[in-house]
Amino acid sequence: MLDRLTLDQLRTLIAVAETGSFSAAGRSLRRVQSAVSQTIQALETTLDLALFDRTRKSPVLTEAGKALLADARRLITGADALRARAESIASDVEPELTLAVESMFPNRLLMQSLRVLTAAFPDLPVRLFTETLGGAEQRLREGAARLAFYSPRPTAEDDFATEFLAAIDMVPVVAASHPLAQAKAPIERTVLEDQVQLVLTDRTQITARFSAGVISRRIWRFADLNTRLDYLLGGFGWCNMPLHLVAAPIAAGQLKRLQLAENDRWSFPIHVVHPRSRPPGRAGRMLIADLRGRLADCAVGAERASLATPADSARPGRARTRRRVAPRSCTAKAKGAGG
Fold it and tell me: Which pTM does this prediction carry?
């Protein structure tokens, strides 16, 4: 019975229900009224149900018609999505660009690249998830995001393709009103151990078992980078922050960059990550290429970090080992970024 059901019949059902008459539905669908009536009759025969009460001046949905109208709308929406996806696949453009981005990534650069993308693909919807630590990977695994910019775990499964994108310069900082701001430099590790350290923690279980980069015995944990920055400015403790986020407060005298006896310069590596089975389409590739161009023209701060160690966060497998990273970094002020 349902093999004879067509999308055209469902669209006609919706049109009649929404316009209130067969004649109005005909005008909406650019058909004569008799064709609309015949289509509805064929649908009722296929379903073996009366969908409209025709005893009144205008057709009124029966209880069965009301129930099936919602199903018809869902089927039509699904069919439209299927068609759009097929057209996008045929043209190699994603039906929707879904991104999961590490919160330490310079948002201003991403905004500039997305403006370029919008100009090239004005009808492309974008869904952006800003995540901390394992959140971006979780979005990929859930299928909520197709492309991500974050620091992948060394032990991550091989179902993701990764490529280095940028290194975020990190610096230890504290509020100017905090006692550490008056400490004699260089500051020894034993001094830091007695102070409150503001640490990023993972909302997911992906990096929950790891605690690399934590020095202090007194720890306050935050799941959001901007909230941690607020508490940093409030003088609640010290932490390592992306230089592009704290350069202005440092220049304004609100924060002080700490000089540590141990290495106080490192980078937080950001990679482009996507499932191997779902490489980026034209829009994703364009975004990556534009970001690379902007990142190549900038640096997070006045200095480029040459060593990679973890920020004070629960990063997996990132002990304080001295290892080289690619000599590219990123900045809050990109070419054409407007200030």
Answer: 0.59
